[in-house]
Amino acid sequence: MNRWIPLALFGSLAFVSFSPSGYAQPRPGDRPGDHPGAAAAIDYRAKLQALEDQRRASRASLRKDPKTWDGDRDKRAEEHRKALATVWGDWIHRPECRAELELNADHLARINRIIDLEEDAHNAALIARARAVQAREIARHARVMQDLRVRLGVQ
């Protein structure tokens, strides 16, 4: 019975070491600058970051009054859609883009809520971390949207 334990241990280690995850390498499109339109994605990232910074500045003053905050939600959403249309163009209404835009909106809404809560709690470390995550999400979104633009042949 005891001699089966080392054999089983050796077998499981051999399985793990020879499995495909043992040879994990980044995919060709995962490295910065390795995908089509990398320079354009960087430009879009800067535009999206500026847009998000502008929204953050106006958000701070609007959050002080909860009734105004809730009442103006539709107006803010429409303004944000128009701003995104100026960044990306009219092709964002395609079904391929809608999924990415919804995913990005969900991610940014959660990140913004975390930033709001931590600003109320005066937790500078978590605010800095949430803003770093926000910057990564904006970069990911710009890269995915640029890839969609290239794939769809939109100019």
Secondary structure elements and pairings:
Layout: H1 4-17, H2 38-62, H3 66-71, H4 73-88, H5 95-121, H6 124-152
Gyration radius over CA: 22 Å
Q: Gap between N and C termini, in Å? A: 69 Å
The whole-number mean of residue pLDDT values reads: 80
Question: Count of helical segments?
Answer: 6
Number of domains: 1
Order of helices and strands: HHHHHH
Beta-strand segment tally: 0
Q: Structural class from helices and strands? A: mainly alpha
- Spatial shape: globular
> Low-confidence spans: pLDDT under 50, at least 5 residues?
21-25
**Beta strand %:** under 5%
The helix fraction, in percent, is over 70%
Largest sheet: none
Describe the structure using short key phrases.
6 helices, single chain, 75% helix, 155 residues, mainly alpha, 0% strand
Can you walk through the features of this model?
By secondary structure, the chain is mainly α. The protein has one domain. Helix content is 75%, strand content 0%. The protein has 6 helices and no strands. Helix 2 (38-62) packs antiparallel against helix 4 and helix 2 (38-62) packs across helix 6. The longest helix is centred in the last third of the chain and has 29 residues, at 124-152. The protein is globular, with a radius of gyration of 22 Å.
